[in-house]
Structure formats: structure tokens, C-alpha cells
Amino acid sequence: MSGETPVQPHSQPRRPDRAALAIAASLAAAGGVLLWDAARLADVSGGYSGVGPASAPRMIGAALVLLALWTLADALRGRFPERPRQDLPPLLWIVAGLAFQLMALKTLGFSIATGVMFACTARAFGKRNLGLSVPVGIVFSFLVWLVFAIGLRLSLPAGLIEHLFFPGVK
After folding, report:
1. Cβ burial 114-124 (10 Å sphere, 16+ → b, else e)
2. Which of 137, 147, 133 is nearest to 111 (CA)?
3. pLDDT of 18-55, one tens digit each?
4. C-alpha–C-alpha distance, residues 122 and 131, integer Å
5. Which of 118, 108, 110, 94 is nearest to 146 (CA)?
6. What does the radius of gyration of the chain's CA atoms come to, in whole angstroms?
7. Long-range contact list for 137-141, CB < 8 A, 24+ apart?
8. Which of 4, 34, 48, 86 shows a CA-CA span of 20 to 30 A to 95?
9. Is the pTM of this model over 0.70?
């Protein structure tokens, strides 16, 4: 009996991971689009090096297709670890903050739009006091706007608060 291996109870194989299959399909689609677009570029040899404008898209597209195949193989074998259940409300707070920022950036300006996004993200991470998070986010966002728009002369959308302190800024 010393040479026999113990009998393992028959475990049912895991089903293919649907999320991993979706990721594999997305990777394959992105890689395919890059390869298709690279094929449409003019075939310029790139001079002595042979590197042209299509070289990087071809390499990235091929890498994405290889990653898609690898992900597909692991998904079909069920080799992905079990993931914890997602908590949807924090994710929705972050998406809502990003959506608000995108919609309000031109009308309200960088400071207010980004300050509200900051508060929504803080709420997603457990900070429940929006009455404090919004003004703190606006102040931090205004400081960032100052560094970029005034200090570095980069164009960020100016709104109510920015025009209050710097009336001539566009």
C-alpha cells in the first residue's frame, strides 16, 4: 500500500469563466482593430532601420491578440481565481462623478466639476459627508488649476471660480 496514491474525490471541473471570455474577446477586438489599421497605413520602410509608422501598431496589435489567446485558454480551462462579488454602489458613485465632470467641465469650469468628482469618489471610498467633501475638492481642484493654468500656462477650462479670481483668463 505504500506505493499507491491516495484517491482524490472527483471534483467537478469549473465552467469557463464568462468574464475572462469577455476580456479575451475585447483584447482580440482591440488587437484586430490595431492590426487592421496598421495594414491601412502607407508601407513606408522607415529608411535604414526598417521601422515605419505601422511598426508600433503592428507590435501592439499582435501582443493584444496573443494576450487574447492566452486569456481565452485560461478562461476555457477555468484557471482564473474566484473573484469576490462586486459592490455596485461605490462603482456607481465614481462613474457618476466622472460623468458629471465630463458634462460640467466647460460650463462650470475645472474647479467645480473636478471638485464634485472628487467628492463622489470620496463618497465611493466611504466618506459620507458630501457637504465637506465638495468644498475640499473644489479648493484642491482650484489649486491644481492654478498650477497648470497660471504657473505652467496650460489650458484648462475656466469657470465661475477661476473667473472670480482671474477675470481675464479664458
Report:
1. bbbbbbbbbbb
2. 137
3. 889 999 999 999 999 999 998 887 666 556 666 777 88
4. 12
5. 110
6. 26
7. 138/111, 138/112, 138/114, 139/115, 140/115, 141/110, 141/111, 141/112, 141/113, 141/114, 141/115
8. 34
9. no
Other beta carbons less than 10 A from residue 159's beta carbon: 19
Mean pLDDT throughout 91-112?
Answer: 96
CA distances from 124 to 75, 90, 98, 129, 165 (A): 30, 4, 12, 11, 31
Cα distances from 112 to residues 26, 122, 125, 149, 156, in angstroms, run: 35, 15, 20, 15, 12
pLDDT in tens, 58-89: 999 999 999 999 999 998 888 888 788 888 99
Instruction: Decide: residue 156, CB within 10 A, 0-12 exposed, 13-18 middle, 19+ buried.
Output: buried
Determine the Cα–Cα distance for residues 20 and 33; give it in Å rounded to an integer: 20
